[in-house]
Amino acid sequence: MGELTVDVTRADAVLIGGGVASATLAALLTDLEPSWRIEVLEKLDDVALESSQGWNNAGTGHSALCELNYTPQDIDGSVSPAKAISINEQFQVSRQFWAHLVETGKITDPSAFINPVPHMSFVHGMENVDYLRRRHDALVKNPLFDSMEFTTSHEQLREWAPLVTEARPETETIAATHSPDGTDVDFGRLTHELLGVAKSAGTTVSTGWEVTSLRRMGSDWGVMARSTSGEVRVVRAPFVFVGAGGNALPILQDSGIPEIRGFGGFPISGEWLRCTDPEIIERHEAKVYGKAAVGAPPMSVPHLDTRYVDGKRALMFGPYAGWSPKFLKAGSNLDLFESIKPGNIAQMMAVAPPNLDLMKYLAGELVASPAKRFDALREYMPSARADDWELITAGQRVQVIAPDPKKVGVLQFGTQLITAADGSIAGMLGASPGASTATTIMLGMLEKVFPDRFGTWESRIREIIPSFGTHLSEDPAAASASLARTAHLLGLEDS
Q1: Strands (E), 298-456
Q2: Which of 132-141, 203-212, 343-352, 374-383 has the lowest mean pLDDT?
Q3: CB 185 within 8 A of CB 114
Q4: Model pLDDT, residue 175
Q5: For residue 181, what pLDDT band results from cuts at 50, 70 and 90?
Q6: Cα–Cα distance for residue pair 338/66, rounded to 1 Å
Q7: Rg of the chain over all Cα atoms, to the nearest angstrom
Q8: Residues in CB range of 2: below 8 A, 6 or more apart
Q9: Is residue 405 helix, strand or coil?
């Protein structure tokens, strides 16, 4: 029996996972450090097949123009715009980065991944109408939201989204907002574009290589990976980024860094209804978001949604939440159980009691009949017929269970960056809005893990992202100029 030979190579940085986060980091690093040897390791046969794939996420290009969960209402009725403004700021950073890549010829066809699609919020009932009016009033004062319109008119809504009004009683109390600055983003296509930019600058993208172990090797990390054909190799590097979606948690746990201790994950799956009638698809051009059900996770906010996936226009509704113990669509049913460690078991067990509404919601979704699910679509499209829609599986999300001294474990629905104290390894946990805000997250991570180098990168970063270090939301002229410039370069202007 022959000995197993292990090929050992060196790199300046290893990025684990071939999704939009790793792709964004690879494209940034090849610009900031063109002499570095960077390797991306992806276990599947192609990149962007998990959370970044077009049908595995909402594709909103999260800018908080329509997502109501980013504008909570206080007990006194006031609506706070702070989180929405912060997320929109971060999305503008992403737009500027993508626009720079187009301007410099590194991406030639932005319509392959981004298209103009108005963003709308839609509610019914007097209480919800009052909330939406307050939300509009709070946001429209900001230069990043000043093009948002509000209406309670069925006639105006018919103009914006005819499928929403068709067969709807004229006496129904409704309200909607409409933001012409909205976009649809195919993050799967974007991931391919960004990795294409990185590869043209020398980055190696290795698909079909699953990371099986992560260990310290002196001042380096040793990243052991096994190919689909059974080969084993180790890549040594002083810096590792873990952008493996749901699988980031077990990989970071395997690294043994103390910063991951106490963190856990709770997986949530989902499904979409996708329209099969081309005529219906052509009649709707908007992302229409509503309010989530009580206890529903933010990624389950219902929306009737124009999409462009792999260059083809589509229409979907959903998502319908589900549950699976897998951390990835291509994962194992043992993923959740294998992630439970002595350092996080108390946090995992303590999460359930304060999240009973979520558990009840998920249980209801799992046993919901097809007819009940279709009734949810009819709330947004009263004329919908079941024969015109098909059910498809959405992506798998792992929500962060974060340690908390008072609550022991807290279920989070955002994105969490984990970095080792010495800056040698970092990873991204969680889900929405990570894809849309990946550029900001990666820049923040680079500043944290490379404090000695970041100062020398700042002037270049400002060339790539003109607003870096400032707040567009506080400068109407700068906000207007940035929106106009990126819209022009990305092909988002009105035809």
Answers
A1: 303-309, 312-322, 389-393, 397-404, 408-412, 415-419, 425-430
A2: 343-352
A3: yes
A4: 98
A5: very high
A6: 37
A7: 23
A8: none
A9: coil
The single residue listed with the structure tokens 């794939």 is: 53
Q: How far apart are CA 292 and CA 70, in angstroms?
A: 12
DSSP secondary structure letter of residue 104: T
CA distance 224 to 432: 29
Q: Is the pLDDT of residue 400 over 70?
A: yes
pLDDT of residue 61: 66
Q: Are strands 38-42 and 204-207 parallel, antiparallel or unpaired?
A: parallel
Query: Using one digit for the tens of pLDDT, what is the confidence trace for 32-44?
Result: 999 999 999 999 9
Q: What one-letter code names the amino acid at 206?
A: S
Q: How far apart are the first and last CA of the chain?
A: 67
Q: Per residue in 186-227, pLDDT tens?
A: 999 999 999 999 999 999 999 999 999 999 999 999 999 999
Residues facing 304 on adjacent strands: 288, 317
Closest-CA residue to 85 (of 149, 21, 141, 129): 141
Question: To which H or E segment does residue 183 belong?
Answer: strand 183-185
Q: Name the token pair of 203.
A: 């980055």
Per-position DSSP letters for 188-244, written without gaps between them: HHHHHHHHHHHHHTT-EEEESEEEEEEEEETTEEEEEEEETTS-EEEEEES-EEE--
CA distance 207 to 387: 39
